[in-house]
Amino acid sequence: MTSRRSTLAFLGVAAGVVVGFQALPSLLDRFSGLPEFEPLANPEGFRRITGGSSSSGAFDPFVGLEAQDDGLRAETIAAVEADLCNALYADVAEDPSTVPIASFSDYYCPYCRVQMRRLADIAEQLDSGVAISWHELPLLGEGSDRAARAALAAKRQGAYLAFQQALWTTPFQPTRDYLLRLSETVGIDGERLINDMQSQDVAEDLMVSKALSRIFGFIGTPAMVVGGTVIQGEITDAVLRSVIAIELDDGWQRIC
Fold it and tell me: Which residue among 6, 40, 150, 216 sits deepest, i.e. has the most Cβ atoms within 10 Å of its Cβ?
């Protein structure tokens, strides 16, 4: 009997330890404190979170943006700078009670998948409190570029979010056959999608997002602009929620 009680007690303690470790991330989030802001000289009126860090270990979420000729023209950057808020939040209605979030991601960036789920969860939980404008920023080669173009082409048929969700949640190679099958799954015209991937509209969308990344000095993906706050790389759920609350209190429209 004593041996059995000891075994049960040990199992109870072990279960408690496991639960404790599982709860640790949420506890760290809860007590991680408020973010510290640093004003940006350019673009004027924006600020960024200081001390943002990349993920530890072998994977670094700050991927790419090497200095290279990416086809981005000075006049494109100038045009985006002249109407910055519209370029950032073009898909988001202007509502002072809603904080807009511009999310920049790459379908081949592992941490971007975490960010996408986090943003989707927050948008659902806060109901109308936030509105997300998704920006495709393919940095990891031809596959990333084809996936981004396919998602933007799906947007022309009103299926951007469904297509995006499918790309985020499954491993894939964006071959023609795969994109045709995925188009059929989400209920859009696959041949039209393939053609639209090379359209001027899709190319312009990619250039606008690329210009924004240059203007805000993003060094990779994932990246976000929450109201007037620029965020690069990994942050906790609690810090993101704090930034949203602060932007709502401060009035993000001060910059637009």
Answer: 150
Mean pLDDT of 209-223: 93
User: Are 131 and 161 found together in one domain?
Assistant: yes
Residue 83 to residues 28, 37, 45, 90, 203, Cα–Cα distance (Å):
39, 24, 14, 10, 19
For residue 50, the model assigns a pLDDT of 59
User: Do 143 and 190 fall into the same domain?
Assistant: yes
> Which of 41, 133, 154, 153 has its CA nearest to residue 86?
133
> Helix axis angle, 2-30 relative to 237-250, nearest 10°?
30
Q: Are residues 94 and 197 in the same domain?
A: yes
- The H-assigned helical ranges of the chain are 2-30, 74-82, 84-88, 110-125, 142-155, 160-169, 176-186, 190-196, 200-215, 237-250
- Residue 22's pLDDT band (cuts 50, 70, 90): very low
Cα separations in angstroms, 6 against 13, 15, 105, 250: 11, 14, 51, 57
